[in-house]
Amino acid sequence: MSETTGIGLPGSPTALFDHALRLRQLAPGEPLPRDGEPYPDDGLHRRRQGPKTPKDRHSVGKDVAAILDAHFARACAVPSELADAFHDVYIPIHHNEHIAAAAQRADRERVRQTGRWLVRHGTDRCSVTVGLALVAAAGTADDIPMIQVIGLLSNHFGPLAAYAFERQPGGVEALLWLAERVTGWGRVYVVEALCRLDDPAARPWLLRRACDGDFLNGYFAGKVATVAKLHEALAELDTDSEMVDHIGRLLHLMSDCGGMGLTLAHYPHASAVLEAHARHVGSLSPTIERYSTIAVLTQHLMTKSPEASGCTAAQQEAFRAAYLDVLDQAEWTHAARAGLEADDNRMRWLADHRAPQLRLRAFPDRVPDVEE
Predict the structure, then answer these.
(1) 143, 152, 173, 301: which has the fewest Cβ within 10 Å?
(2) Where is this region: Disordered (predicted)?
């Protein structure tokens, strides 16, 4: 695949693929700022506002499939004829059985070439989404680089990009590449795809890097802990500070993700993971993230029932005491105060909402009198 700058002629619409490619070239290994938004077609879509989701969810995608059937029924039809064909129908961003069936009814190579053209040259998210669905249905490993680029616009194209990779040989490596470069909902789509594949090759990454701290990570934190067999990897914590930090994020998320994903209360290895984390985190140098993670976990252990933490009352008290011992060490106290003085959001929130109950030495002015 040839990677061009995507600048185009003055006044001409910008292909969404070229938009993603240009932003990627500015920061090759990082997520696109704001998921690449606003997209080049943003103004047009705000004015048009498009059709609403059909009330009958089983009919979603039928209108798109009908347009595709009519297109592929004409042997002389070219992909560019579909560039503006989908404005008046609802376009699902996830895999859709009606669109997939339309792709299966047509010649596979023609479907693939049509999908590739729409993804590569489409200037509107409607046509690019349909193109990506066609590539997901009929694409080959040669399409992986193209899917990765459009998948960087992950809030909209992440679901179909992840679905396409799940069906491809080499899809795990492609998903891992994309997972390192997406955030928010896009990260949810990609990490959940990795969990569904349950490939041993992905477990090292899942154990160390799946959660980036976003609230939406709560949708997959429990899946990551389960699929990556976290409880079997605890022995590695002696020499793996990256895993210690990641386990802290997992525990933090699973302590407060009810309604989103698996919580500590229903994670069968919660007590073993809490014990290992409490035992190892204190041997690391203090950071603001580590301090805030431990403080939130301590708050959970202080205010929730043992069952909510997946442990016994004795274990809960032991974990709470171990965490408090770390938090009140001089170097950890100094790190927390430095973060508060630097107006770090995590430290400010912790001082305002958690310190009075925890009675942490880092925030003496926010600790109530003992007699209160």
Answers:
(1) 173
(2) 24-60
DSSP per-residue codes, 29-84 = TSPPGGGGPSPTTHHHHHHH--PPPPSSGGGTTHHHHHHHHHHHH-TT--GGGGTT
Comparing CA positions, the residue from 159, 100, 148, 92 lying closest to residue 120 is 148
What distance in Å separates the CA atoms of residue 1 and residue 145, rounded to the nearest whole number?
7
**Alpha-carbon span 85 to 124, nearest angstrom:** 10
Nearest CA to 137 out of 173, 99, 175 is that of: 99
Per-residue pLDDT reduced to its tens digit, 217-242: 999 999 999 999 999 999 999 999 99
Interior CA angle at 248 toward 355 and 261, to 5°?
A: 100
Structure tokens at 274: 């809490």
pLDDT at position 354: 64
Cα 22 to Cα 51, 87, 220: the distances in Å are 30, 26, 30
| Tokens 């997972």 found at | 179
Query: CA-based diameter of the chain, in Å?
Result: 86
